[in-house]
Design brief:
Number of strands: 16
Distance between the termini: 51 Å
Number of helices: 15
Strand content: 15-25%
Structural class: alpha+beta
Oligomer: single chain
Helix content: 25-40%
Length: 509
């Protein structure tokens, strides 16, 4: 078997590691639910899944690689092979108690996502969850995989490597691959790492100056936050987060989103998604009497073109002051299509690149000092209300050991000052929007999911009446609570099993 070379983390990857805290880690969890009726014999057992994962370990170095820190943080950490790798530690098996409904599943998924990964082992875990007997649109006996991985090991916006290597594109599973022999390389000595780190610093002396220049405005911004705490309280989500997570989701058809984007000439599918998320945030805050008069912004990661595509973060005003969803869509499209918005994203990326070349000790210290503040606070920029991230999704139907992947979404990390994150996935003709927050900032995730559904329905209703029709009735923000759905179309949580089983507690159509 070809040896995986020892690989060093980049500054960008190391930042996610250094900013971890006991109550806010950088875990990403991919949520996958399967219909096992397509599997041979109509059933997939845990031992089959375990054997299947074990047969694919050689396809990605992420599976068997763990972190090795350099003494005194003289350099960025390295990925090395885990000599004591134990697959049964990383792949776990649980079941929901009856009735096995959507609310139970969301609570369990949130708890799993919130737990810190063991930094002395490879930074991933997979939970096989059975007992999903009362989910909408899925048969009794469905099962889920929660694939949890640290952000330092994978970028969810560009490629879901662990999802790719475990799945096939056809229902009939291929013949199991023979296990490849694996002999891990011994870890390098601490002295070797220190010498290499010192040499790296000597080769790039300017690296020592860049973080100092970057640390000064960050420290000033942090001090300003302490002196003017009112500037941090844009919404309830711009606060210190707890260690407890909440997760919800709603599914929509791509065809209906295409109709929504058609309300404004030139608008994209992404613009329509931002409009629906903005409407949900407006509805939720208004229902709690907390909708601010000022315009709320979102951080929207995007991909910059060129020979080497890089990720950057756009800041988009969400039009939360606008009750009319068409006006909100037009407002958002005007920003995302503006060269000025893209130029600001490029400039922000360039500033971030400076930090990526900082010595590891400085990044580690900065991460510890400012880990409790959002990235926007650390850079001195005004806080955004949320992040809205498009997660790389499977382009075609996938199968795990013959079971068809029927649902795909993600739970994203949150941080102090940025306590709300939307994950947007696109799979099998549907767009799934999944908000993540913490229990103290969002004690009622089902209510937020209902606001998401109502926002979508308000947009969809305008496609039937036309843009020139009378304005829609008062929105949730105007009435002080969630608006009633306009019809039975659109957002769903999975439909309940029909006979002899209790319906899911998640709102249906």
């Amino acid at each position: 078997m070809r040896k995986a070379p020892m690989r060093q983390l980049s500054g960008h990857e190391a930042i996610f590691l250094y900013a971890d805290s006991a109550h806010a880690n950088a875990n990403i969890t991919f949520v996958q639910i399967y219909d096992q009726r397509t599997a041979p014999g109509g059933m997939v057992r845990f031992k089959d899944i375990l054997a299947h994962i074990e047969s694919r370990l050689h396809r990605s170095p992420v599976f068997r690689s763990k972190l090795l820190r350099v003494p005194l943080e003289l350099d960025y950490p390295y990925w090395i092979e885990d000599e004591h790798f134990d697959i049964e530690y990383h792949v776990r098996h649980i079941a929901l108690p009856k009735p096995g409904d959507w609310r139970q599943f969301c609570i369990q998924a949130s708890r799993i996502h919130a737990r810190q990964l063991d930094l002395n082992r490879p930074l991933w875990e997979i939970y096989v969850i059975e007992g999903l007997d009362s989910l909408d649109d899925l048969p009794p006996g469905s099962f889920a995989l929660l694939t949890k991985v640290h952000h330092a090991a994978i970028d969810p916006q560009t490629r879901n490597e662990l999802v790719e290597v475990l799945h096939d594109t056809r229902a009939r599973p291929p013949r199991p691959e023979p296990a490849e022999p694996w002999f891990p390389e011994p870890a390098p000595s601490a002295m070797r790492l220190m010498v290499r780190g010192a040499l790296n610093s000597m080769r790039a002396p300017l690296k020592l100056m860049a973080p100092v220049a970057r640390l000064v405005p960050a420290a000033m911004a942090f001090a300003g936050d302490l002196l003017h705490p009112e500037q941090l309280a844009a919404t309830r989500f711009n606060a210190v987060v707890s260690a407890h997570r909440v997760f919800e989701t709603r599914r929509f058809t791509i065809e209906e989103f295409e109709r929504i984007r058609g309300l404004v000439e030139g608008a994209t599918l992404e613009d329509a998604v931002l409009t629906v998320c903005a409407g949900a945030l407006r509805c939720y805050l208004a229902s709690h009497g907390e909708l601010p008069d000022t315009e709320l912004e979102a951080i929207v990661p995007t991909r910059l073109g060129g020979r080497k595509a890089q990720s950057a973060a756009m800041r988009v005003q969400l039009g939360t002051r606008l009750a009319d969803p068409v006006e909100r869509l037009e407002w958002i499209h005007g920003q995302t299509s503006s060269p000025r918005t893209l130029a600001r994203a490029v400039a922000a990326r360039e500033r971030s690149d400076i930090g990526e070349h900082a010595p590891a000790a400085t990044l580690a210290l900065t991460g510890r000092l400012f880990g409790r503040a959002s990235p926007e606070t650390r850079s001195g920029m005004p806080l955004a209300a949320c992040t809205i991230t498009k997660v790389a999704s499977p382009p075609k139907p996938l199968y795990l050991d013959g079971a068809r992947l029927a649902y795909f979404s993600a739970i994203l990390p949150i941080a102090d000052g940025m306590g709300l994150a939307f994950a947007v996935t696109r799979y099998d003709g549907r767009i799934v929007i999944s908000p993540t927050s913490c229990r103290e900032l969002m004690p009622d995730p089902q209510a937020f999911a209902q606001c998401l559904r109502d926002s979508f329905q308000a947009c969809l209703a305008r496609t039937r009446r036309g843009v020139r029709a009378a304005r829609p009735r008062a929105s949730a923000a105007d009435t002080g609570g969630p608006a009633a759905p306009t019809d039975g179309s659109g957002a769903t949580a999975p439909r309940a099993a029909k006979v002899g089983r209790r319906r899911s507690t998640a709102p249906g159509r």
